[in-house]
Amino acid sequence: MTTANSHGPANRRDKPLDTWLADAIHKIGPALNPDTEQASVALFAPLHPPVSPGVRCERDLRYGPLERQRMNVFHAQDAQSCPVMLFIHGGGFVAGDKSLPGLPFYDNVGAWAVRCGFVGVVMNYRLAPQDPWPAGPEDVGRAVAWLRSQIGAYGGDPKRIFLFAQSAGAAHAASYLAHPRFHTEGNAGLKGAILVSGLYDIAGMERNPMIDSYYGSDPSLYAERSSVPAIGNSDVPVLVAVGDVELAEFDRQAMLLMNALFACRHRIPDFVRMTGHSHFSQIFALGLDFHTELSDAVVRFVATV
Fold this sequence. Notes:
Layout: H1 4-7, H2 17-28, H3 34-44, E1 55-62, E2 70-76, E3 82-88, H4 107-115, E4 119-123, H5 135-150, E5 156-166, H6 168-178, E6 192-196, H7 209-215, H8 222-225, E7 238-245, H9 248-265, E8 270-278, H10 281-284, H11 293-304
Parallel strand pairs: 3-4, 3-5, 5-6, 6-7, 7-8
Antiparallel strand pairs: 1-2, 2-4
Helix pairs in contact: 2-3, 5-6
């Protein structure tokens, strides 16, 4: 297993940091397994500075009655009417957390959001197999409803809430957009959504234990539980993102999502392909001063919708 010592900054030698990182990401490769995740954690964790004292973080705020229905809110002390970035982590539907003890993830996302002039919110949600479909979009709906009523107290603008979601989190976010029954206040309540390397066509995927644990063991239900093509009926602007060091399935999923959006809107959605990034590194890199392709695209997207 790769360790921080074998990938740490001391081994960069004479290469610029961004070039060295790109080489290391390609060496780890696109596979999704505990070893590649740990290697990516070890690669990026030493590069993140502590969260700035200028960033305030309110932890474990409850947006629902259950233990996993909590969020961390990051904001500047003087924040006023800032766009709100609600981040939904991945974890294969069965794992993941809004913050990882001893590691900068996903506090790096909240701190990055504040640095960009947003209020950052990092949420937990219920996990399979204890809580299968539709727990994910139900929790997104609860979190959005909480933000609409409460985020003003932290300097956020409840009329400018953006979902920012990756992997299984992006599947939950897309399900929320696609299926209005999860909108707790009559509409999505969103200004936009950034969907990064998600799963949108469950029916067309090869089955695996994580899919079965969340979506159920009956494949005849997968089409109606997918977010394509129904997401095309949503009027929420969407930015689609995928890395170029990823499994081909994520390219296929991104194309299906974009096709569904185009079929109803007759415009190509905003899209960014993150050069040199893997499934893990795209979010682990947020908050650094290099490999900023995703950050730059998100900031442009928020400014133009």
